[in-house]
Every structure is written in structure tokens, then in C-alpha cells.
What does this fold into?
Amino acid sequence: MNRAPLFLLYFNVLVVATCGLIYELLAGTLASYVLGDSVTQFSLVIGTYLSALGVGAWLSRFIVKRLARAFVEVELAVALLGGTSAPLLFFAFAHLRWFQALLFAEVFAIGVLVGLELPLLMRILRDHLDFDDLVSRVLAFDYIGALLASLLFPLFLIPHLGLVRTSLVFGILNALVGLWGTWLLRPILTGRVGGLRIRGVFVVGLLAAGLLRADRLTDLAEEEMFPNPIVYTRTTPYQRIVVTRKDADFQLFLNGNLQFNSVDEYRYHEALVHPALIAARAPRTVLVLGGGDGLAAREIFKHASVESVTLVDIDPQMTSLADQFPLLRELNRDSLHDPRLKLVHDDALIWLEQTREIFDAVIVDFPDPNTFALGKLYTKRFYQLLRQRLSPEGAITIQCTSPLVARSSYWCIVRTLEAAGFKVAPYQASVPSFGVWGYVLARLTVEPNPSQLPDELRGQLRFLNDETLRSLFDFPEDFAAVPVEINRLDNQMLVRYYEAEWKRWN
It folds into this structure.
């Protein structure tokens, strides 16, 4: 075999390795998207896939004849199974009670097939290279493929193609490698190849048709996952944004998790914003971390003392939605266009490390800590940085998930704030779409809890009045503190608490 075909076979190794890891990452991402519990799901998917690679490598020893034909057959099988994995699993989640069994069965089957591919290619190449060259070159291309997959997946594929398109594109790539193999390996292919080529063309055509209808496939799958019709979707480098609507009400979901329902979001945002601004006594400068929907900013601007608001949200697509989506722009009262607002797109942790601004009040409105990327925004390190940016008379409020459903998670946030040097006042509010929801009011000194609305707010609020404001700080016995560890960057205990507790309710 001359150098050109050898190089092409190495290229096949690269494609095989890249595609295999992409399918694994797709399965892990999809599992965490629809099931939550991202750490556990990713760990189980990776473990299942790696063990399946070993099973596939072991099974390859039983293929002793017609190696080239076996390789092409396996390649087409991987293409079909891997390429259809994302749309198939999306639909299965909506209709099958045993979705997890199907998920891990598919991951295992793909892993076995990928585990077969590399040993077959190595055996095809062994007559043309000595053993040392064979192993070093094949493994080098294998690891390069893994590197390509790990870079492409988060930086390009998911943000620009999404789960379904990525699955179908790499299935087509696998199928084309198999089809190409019927010519590249023709000198050692035994028997007729017409049937192989027809199957290869069929698989490519089937996946290409799916790719042309990828948006519709995604819409159909997601429509089964959400209770109301979808009116907006967008995949960004940071999250999947979905807006659903029923009659005059609409709901925002991030990565499948409800962020607010327009029918009762005012309860959540009034409880989040006003205790801090009342406690800060006529604040002039306010910082909002998260809150890209503009709803917290809407509440802040009800305070006449506010001169400037800095809103830091990592995702430009989220703030663009708040600015351009008519339903949301009406709901947030065009708050992102207020001349007092300064919009910053950055990672909140990095931004806090760099800024030297001091704020009279801070509103922290991050999504729940269901991943390590979000969990870092609830750590002692993060709160220490936040403490440095707060004026001596200032106040902070933080949304802290449900003290009823996720009691350890809630108190982990409270104790972490205390460990960072804050004096805390836990409180809660009832939001029908979420149930009982928890917050923390944090200050640098011990002060009485807010008990009376300023005159300027009277008549502007739908939920809070003097009596309701005072009742927020009443904690029933089933919300009482429990022993927890502090959430640090090096342990991320909060994510572990959160996943364990919400898993019981999902």
C-alpha cells in the first residue's frame, strides 16, 4: 500500500476518534439537559462509553476474516446509530418512562462499535508498517481526534449547530468515511461491494434529510418536553434558551429549567430586589449579577435614589432577547434602555476580580447551581470578592433555590456567605410557579430586617406591602438550618447538595 492510501487510513483514524468522542459528549450533554444532575450524568456516560470501548476492542479479536468489509460495516452502523442519537433520545425522553435505560444502552452500543473500529484499522495497517510505527501513529491520530472533538464541541458545534445538527453532521461524516472506504480499501475488500455502497448512500441520504429538517426535528422534540407551545429558541455558547407561551402568559427556560413565568414573576423579583434596596437606605449605585432578562432592573428603577445600575450577564443572547423580544421587553418595561443602566457581558467572577467600583446595593440573580460553572458563582471566593465591592452601608440579596426542596443547598449558600464575612438574614417568598423560594439578605454589619416600604414604592408593587415584607423573614420549622459544608472552588459542595436534593423531586 503506497503512502497516499496510508495517510488516508490515518485520516480515517482521526475521524473515527473525533466522531466517537463527539457522540459521547452529545449523550452526556443531552442527559444533563433533560435529566439535570449534570455531574452524575456526565460521569455515568463517560464511564459507560469507556467501558464499551474496551468491550468493542475485545470483541474485535473474533473478527478474523474480511477485515476491510467488517470495518466498513461497523463505520456505517456507527454513522446510523450515532447520527440519529440526539433526535432519537430527545423524542424518547418525552414518550418513554425508561429513557435512562435507552440512553445508556445507546451510549454502550456506540462505544462498542467505536471500540471495534480502531483495532480493525490497526490490523488492516499491520502488513504495511512495523509494530512500533503502527501503534505510535494510530494512537497519535486517535489522541489528536479526541483533542479536536473536545475543542470543537463547546466552542463551535453546540453554540452554532446545536445537539441535533451536531449529531446528524457527524453521522454523515462517519457514513462518508465508510462509503469512501469501499474505494480506499477496494484492493483488500472481498466479494461484491455494490451492496455496501448502496447502504452507505442510503445512510448518508437519510442523515442528510434529517439535517435539512433539523430545526423541525428539534422543535418537535422540544414541544414534547415543554407544556406550552414554543415561540422562541436559541442555542448560545452558554445555554439553550427556550420561550414558551400560552394565551397572554409566557415562560423562559434555560437548559430546560424554568427561569420565570410571566404570570407570577413579579413575586420573585419584588422579593429579590426590594429588601436589599430598602436595607441599603436610598442606594445610588446598584450592581446586578445575572438578571439578563431585565426584570430585576425593572424593580430597581422604582427607587428614585438610584443613579446608576451595572448589569453583568455573561450571555449577550440573553440580554438581546430581553431587548428585542416584544413580550419580554414589555414585561421588563424596557429597562435595558434606561440611560442609567450600564450593560456588561462578562463572567461575573472574572469581572469582580478586575473591577474597582463600589456599590451601595447588589442583586445576585444567577440560575440555580446545577453545574460547576454556576457553582463557582456561589463559592466563598466569589462572596469575598463581592464583599470588597460593597459599600459599608450596603446590602446584597441572593436567590438561593428552595429552602423546602433543597434545604442543604439553601443553608450551604447561607453558611458560605457567613464564612466570607457577611451578616445574613435568610428569607423566603411563595412563587406559585416554583413553590416556596429562598433568598438571603447579606450586609457587613448586623442590622434590623427591613420592615416598612418607603413611600415611593407604595402603589407600585403587586406583591409586597409592609406586612408581607416583614413576613418574608419568618422561617417555619421545616426550613430550619441543617449542618452543611462551606462551598469552595476546590470542593463545589453546593452542586453536590443541589443535585442530590432536586433529583428526589424531578
Notes: DSSP finds 18 helices and eleven strands in the chain. The chain has three domains: 3-224, 228-259, 260-505.
